[in-house]
Every structure is written in structure tokens, then in C-alpha cells.
Description:
By secondary structure, the chain is of the alpha+beta class. It has 4 helices and 5 strands. It is 31% helix and 29% strand.
Amino acid sequence: MQKSKTFVELRIINPGERAxxxxxxxxxxxxxxxxxxVFQSRLDLGAKxxxxxxxxxxxxxxxxxWLRQLQEAGVEMVCRIRVRARELAIEPEAxxxxxxxxxxxxxxxxx
Length: 111
């Protein structure tokens, strides 16, 4: 049985004038993607979606205040989960980052 591939990212959507604070704050963490900035899970693509989400939370938990300040300034963020599988299971504790930051979550299936 082949492992499914999972991609999980936190995307900061078109931050405009706040872009410089993102690149200076965590150089190398958030990568520019057109007008957005993306921070992808660095776990193996075969890891489960819950593992990716927990990893993102662990890495970004000390940046919550800064991320909330960006949101309060009107910067939109989304957590994107892309799964190459037919089904998806996410453990409740894996949703903590989205809950704490009130993040919109997008899930895409690519069987």
C-alpha cells in the first residue's frame, strides 16, 4: 500500500505593506508565493495530516501574538491541507492552531 501525500501550510494572503515585517521577522520561514507568504510543514509528505498540523502549531505557537497582530491589521490567513487520498481524519488536538488564530481552513482532496 502506497503512503498518501499530504501538504499542510499556513498562508498569509496578500499582506501588502506588512510584507516587510513578515520577511524580516522570520527569514526563511515564510516563503514568498506571488503576493502571498507561505509556511509549509517540513515533515515528510507521508506524515498524517494531524502530524503536520501539530508540527505547525509547535513551531508557530510562540508567534501567535505576532500573527494575531497581523490579523488585527486586516491581513488574512488560511490553513491549507492538500491530501492525495480518498479520506481524511484529523485528531481534535491537531486543530488547536486554527482554533487559537481563528483561521479559515481549506481542504483539497487529490486522489
